[in-house]
Structure formats: C-alpha cells, structure tokens
Amino acid sequence: MNALAFLYKRVLKKQLDGAINAIRATKKINVPVVMTRKETAKVIGMMGGTTQLAVKQMYGSGLRMSETIRLRIQDIDYNMKIITVRSGKGAKDRITTFPSSIIPFLQNHLAKVKIMHENDLTLGHGEVYMPHALARKYQNAAREWGWQYVFPARNLSTDPRSGII
Q: Which of 13, 24, 61, 163 is deepest in the core (most CB within 10 A)?
C-alpha cells in the first residue's frame, strides 16, 4: 500500500483517486519459549562443579552469561544478598538479588579460587583487567582479592592490550 502511494505521489506525480482497499498482513505473534521449573532443574542437575554454580547464579539472579563471567568478588554482598552488575546491557550498572541457597557453594568455590589466586601471585602473575583508568589510579588493585573474578579462567592468559600474563 505504501509502495503504491509512493509511486503515485513521487514518481508519477499524480494524486490517488479514492482509498486503496488493500489487505494488510497480520502481525505474527511470537510467544517466548520458556522452560518450566522442572525442565530447568533437570538441565542444572546434569551439570556439575563450577559450571553448575555459574548457571545457578545466572538463574537465581537473572544474570546474563557475560555478566556472570565479568562478576568480581567485591560485587557480591552476602549480608544483603545482592550482586552489583557493572557495565551490563547498555553499559549500565544495576543491582540484583541472589539466592541464599547457593551461598555455601559460592563460598566453597571462592575458597578454591583464592588458593589459585595466591599461587598465581607467588609465580608473579595474578593480575586482572582493571576497567577504565582505575589501573593508573590504583596500581596494585589488579592483584587485590576483591578485584578478582568469581569465575576465573583455568589457565593463565595474556592480556592483548597490555601484554601482562
């Protein structure tokens, strides 16, 4: 219909006589596909270890995968049961809750991560990427425990920007 109106007005430079009785296409209604609680519990039950903990964190807190991967130790408040998500969707910060049922598992996981971090520090590594100008402002913060990732990589890696391992 709009194509015909454009053709007559702009190309042919003629006025349309009367109304166009065109049949408009019906809008397709997309129903979101959502898993039931039972299906979700079954999928989570098939996982184990760190992956299961990360998925429970995402499911219980409504985190996206990228937000879970970038989550730092200092962003978790056990007393208030909240997580501060930094630079989430739209580069905005937000606060969300997390389930108290994962607290013991999370603390156990972080105890293992702390040992791994201390081993990395003894080898001269253990630095994480610092956002924006914080690396210059707080030069030792990249090695501090609070800035470490909750779900770090298993192996050492080289930061492509700075070349630091």
A: 61
